[in-house]
Design a protein that fits this description.
Layout: E1 5-6, E2 26-30, E3 39-47, E4 50-55, E5 67-72, E6 81-83, H1 86-96, E7 99-104, H2 128-136, E8 139-147, E9 150-157, H3 160-169, H4 178-187, E10 191-197, H5 199-205, E11 213-218, E12 223-224, H6 227-230, E13 237-245, E14 250-252, E15 256-259, E16 264-266, H7 274-288, E17 293-301, H8 315-321, E18 334-337, E19 340-343, E20 349-357, E21 366-370, E22 377-378, E23 380-385, H9 394-419, H10 423-428
Parallel strand pairs: 1-5, 3-13, 7-23, 15-17, 16-23
Antiparallel strand pairs: 2-7, 3-4, 4-11, 5-10, 6-11, 8-9, 9-10, 12-21, 13-20, 14-21, 17-20, 17-22, 18-19
Length: about 450
C-alpha cells in the first residue's frame, strides 16, 4: 500500500533563566533527535522572501511504497529541487542538541583553577495519456523531473476532489479527511510537490536509504504546512525545525515559543542516564504547556559553540543547505572554542525548535517570524562531581557538612521537578547522601511571635 508522506510527519516525510554568557565545562552528553521515535527533521534557510527547505526522509519499509505530497507556494522548476546527504542534517542536529556538561569541585583548602575545556538529470515530461487523465479531473501536471533517486511532479488543481481522486488513482494513499485540508491549500493558490522513488535510479546511485529532498522557492509566507501530515498520524509526533537566518532567532507567531529550562544543576548519576532524563523532562514541559507550545532548544550565531556538542557546520555544508548569502570572497576568520580553533561561519544564526504535535492541539500550520534577538541560548544541564577529600581545614568541614549536602538536595529537587520522577527513587541513586543539618529549633523563631509584640 502506498503511503502519503506529509511534510509534517515528515515521517510522514521522510522532526529557569536563560544564561547569556559563554558557557564553560566538559561537554559529556547530548540529547539529539535520535532519542525520540517518529522524529522528523526540517531545515529552513530563510532571508527576505527566499526559502530553501531541506526535508529528512525517515521512511521505513519498501521504498517502492514511498510517496510524498507537500503543498508549495509556486510552480517549481527542476533547478529548484535538489537531493542532499543525510550527514548534513545529522551534523546540524548534533551541533544544536541540548547538552550535558560537567564540573569537578575543587579542594576547599586550596585555590585551584577550575578545569575548562573549553547531485541532477532531466526526465521526460509525463506522457500525453497520463496528463490527459489528470486534466479530466481538473489537475494540471505543471512539471515533471527526476532528481537523484526521486521522480517529482508539480501539480496544480481547480478543485480538491479532483486532486484527491487523481492522487488516489496514482497510488498516493491519502488519509481520511484529506480533501478539506487540500482544499484549504488550493484556496491559498498553492501547488503540490509530489515525489516517489525511482527504483532504477536508486539502484544506479547505490543509496540504501532515502536522502533528504530540498526545494528552493520565494514566498512572503514563512511557514511550514503541518496539517496534511497529521491526518494519517497514529498519535503525537516529534518535529525538529532548524532555521538558518541572517538576522537572529526565529519563533512561531501562532503558537507560543517557549524556552526549555536551562542552566539547571542535576545529580552526577544523570551522566549515564541523560537520554531518559531529557525525554522525560521534555514530556513534562509539553504537559505543562498543555501540549500546545513550540520549544526553543538552541539559538546561536554559528561562529562558534561553547561547549561544543559538534563543530559548527562548514561553509560547504551551509551552502549545501542553501545558505545563499555566503560571500565566497570573504576571508575566513577563526574563533577558539574549548581549546580548538575552527573556521568561522558568516552571518548565519541557527534556531532549533522542537515540537510534539497532534491534530487536536495543532490545528494550524506553523507560522514563523524572524526576530532581531541574537542572544545565545542552549539547553544546557550541569553536573558537579563532589570533592571527596578529608576535613583538613574549616572550609573543608563546612563544604562536607553543609554546602555539599544542601547542593545535593537542591539537585535532587531540580531533577524531580523537571521530570516528575519520584524524589525518593532519585535519592537512592546518590551514594553517601548526607542529610542537611536541621535548623536549631531554639534559634528559629515563629513568624507570628513578633507580629504584635510591643516595642
Amino acid at each position: 500500500m502506498k503511503k502519503i508522506i506529509s511534510l509534517l510527519s515528515l515521517a510522514s516525510l521522510v522532526l529557569l533563566p536563560a544564561v547569556s554568557h559563554a558557557f564553560c565545562g566538559f561537554y559529556v552528553a547530548k540529547a539529539d533527535s535520535k532519542l525520540f521515535n517518529e522524529a522528523s527533521q526540517v531545515a529552513m534557510v530563510r532571508d527576505g522572501d527566499r526559502t530553501v527547505l531541506t526535508m529528512s526522509n525517515d521512511f521505513k519499509g519498501d521504498v517502492s511504497d514511498f510517496a510524498m505530497v507537500i503543498p508549495v507556494p509556486s510552480l517549481l522548476e527542476r533547478e529548484q529541487i535538489h537531493v542532499t546527504e543525510n550527514a548534513i542534517l545529522d551534523h546540524l542536529d548534533a551541533y544544536s542538541a541540548p547538552r550535558l556538561v560537567e564540573y569537578f569541585d575543587e579542594d576547599p583548602c586550596m585555590v585551584l583553577r577550575r578545569m575548562e575545556v573549553m547531485e541532477m538529470s532531466a526526465s521526460p515530461m509525463a506522457d500525453a495519456e497520463f496528463k490527459s487523465k489528470a486534466k479530466n479531473l481538473g489537475v494540471t501536471i505543471e512539471a515533471s523531473y527526476t532528481v537523484g533517486e526521486y521522480d517529482i511532479l508539480i501539480l496544480s488543481a481547480k478543485q480538491s476532489d479532483g486532486l484527491v481522486t487523481w492522487l488516489k488513482q496514482n497510488d498516493y494513499k491519502l488519509p481520511k479527511g484529506a480533501e478539506p485540508v487540500v482544499n484549504s491549500y488550493l484556496k491559498q493558490g498553492m501547488k503540490f510537490f509530489v515525489a516517489k522513488v525511482n527504483l532504477k535510479e536508486q539502484a544506479k546511485l547505490g543509496f540504501a536509504n532515502l536522502r533528504p529532498l530540498q526545494v528552493a522557492f520565494e514566498s512572503p509566507k514563512f511557514m511550514l504546512p503541518l496539517r496534511l501530515g497529521m491526518l494519517n498520524a497514529d498519535g503525537a509526533q516529534e518535529l525538529y525545525v532548524y532555521t538558518l537566518t541572517k538576522k537572529g532567532r526565529v519563533e512561531t507567531t501562532n503558537y507560543r515559543t517557549v524556552k526549555m529550562p536551562t542552566g539547571i544543576e542535576l545529580p552526577p548519576y544523570i551522566k549515564d542516564d541523560f537520554g531518559n532524563f531529557y525525554m522525560d523532562m521534555f514530556r513534562s514541559q509539553v504537559k505543562k504547556e498543555n501540549n500546545r507550545a513550540v520549544f526553543l532548544e538552541y539559538a546561536w550565531d554559528m561562529n562558534w559553540c561553547d561547549p561544543c556538542a559538534a563543530d559548527p557546520l562548514s561553509d560547504k555544508e551551509l551552502k549545501e543547505l542553501g545558505v545563499f548569502w555566503l560571500n565566497n570572497n570573504q576571508p575566513t576568520t577563526s574563533k577558539p572554542t574549548q581549546g580548538r580553533v575552527m573556521p568561522q561561519a558568516k552571518d548565519v544564526f541557527i534556531t532549533r525548535l522542537h515540537v510534539r504535535y497532534d491534530k487536536a492541539n495543532f490545528p494550524e500550520d506553523l507560522v514563523f517570524q524572524q526576530t532581531g534577538d541574537r542572544e545565545n541560548f542552549q539547553g544546557r544541564y550541569v553536573i558537579r562531581h563532589p570533592w571527596n577529600g578529608e576535613e583538613k581545614c574549616p572550609q573543608a568541614k563546612e563544604y562536607l557538612t553543609s554546602a555539599l549536602p544542601k547542593r545535593q538536595q537542591q539537585e535532587i529537587k531540580n531533577l524531580a521537578h523537571l521530570t516528575e520522577w519520584d524524589i525518593n527513587d532519585i535519592r537512592k541513586e546518590i551514594p553517601g547522601l548526607k542529610p542537611v543539618e536541621p535548623v536549631n529549633p531554639e534559634v528559629a523563631t515563629p513568624w507570628w511571635k513578633k507580629l504584635w509584640a510591643e516595642d
